[in-house]
Amino acid sequence: MRSFRSIQWLDDGVLRLLDQRKLPHETVYNDYTSAGEVAQAIREMVIRGAPAIGAAAAYGLALTAVHTAVTNTTVLKRELAETAVLLRQTRPTAVNLFWAIERMTNRLADPNLDAIPAIQAAILAEAHAIAAEDVQINKQIGLNAMSLIPDIATIIHHCNTGSLATVDYGTALGIIRMAHEQGKKVLALLDETRPRLQGARLSAWELKQQGVPFMVIADGASGHYMRTKGVDLCVVGADRVAANGDTANKIGTYNLAVVARENGVPFYVAAPTTTIDLATAAGDEIEIEERPAQEMTTVGNWQITPDDVPVGNPAFDITPARYISAIITEKGVVYPPFEKNLLQLFVTVQPPTDF
Ligand code: MRU
Fold it and tell me: Does the CB atom of residue 159 touch ligand 1 within 6 A?
């Protein structure tokens, strides 16, 4: 089955990103050699989706290390700290961005990294590890979800959470893909996902090439399908899950969850544990990115509103935990009460000390 690697590191120190703004009409890869370019690519959504943003930021730091002109380790570490600040300012909601930068920064703190080549090798290895782990995590999320997916299932999905939104395979869309691969008869109803149309452009592009049955539906049609056609479940991704289970995800997720509750349809969030932010107690503490008005006033090159209209364009919303049936992670399926059960995912069992 076809996979689409959203991020590739080329051996000559180049980061290659699949330009998601151009899909599905053009498959264009852009090459980057500086963290400044990568920051701009994240902001402009060349690359998007919480895990993919995290991995791209990690490689952004690797670009700074690999292409540095300095010869002093203290100066290189300062350059990397400045790069981290730059990357942190790209998109505020997806916690994977901040998680990845912190993991890279922690690696840099190793006192053994006392020469430029050692720093370069360590930073690049850490970025590769983040990318490789992401693919394995996604597959494990899929495996953990399989018992929740009936053998014949109509599933509503919002935004794009597939290979494009991760390093490869995907979270919520990965579950749909895996169910199909395992021989389940799935039909995915893909919310088009206004205003950036990640569902219509990107999820449809992925599932079409993978041979997974789907239909693109208008965002506002999900209630109609639930009420009249028998939807078995909804599954969405997440940009940040607060400690109490409140979940930030693509704008429109909250509406979908409320309509799912009204119709008795289970509503699942699929996310790696890197998307769970225990430092954020509840959803209202999560910063919601406000994006340019032009995303709302145009579709492609067509302006669809009168000139100079006021616009609100929050990129994400918060689904309160009470609407979420379970959160599917690589460490297992977590059920309410989330406040208690999410915490359990992070408890490490200490080995006995008396041996
Ligand atoms: O604005 P985007 O396209 O980056 O938003 C993406 C989403 O909201 C996804 O659902 C989320 O990041 C999870 S991707 C596995």
Answer: yes
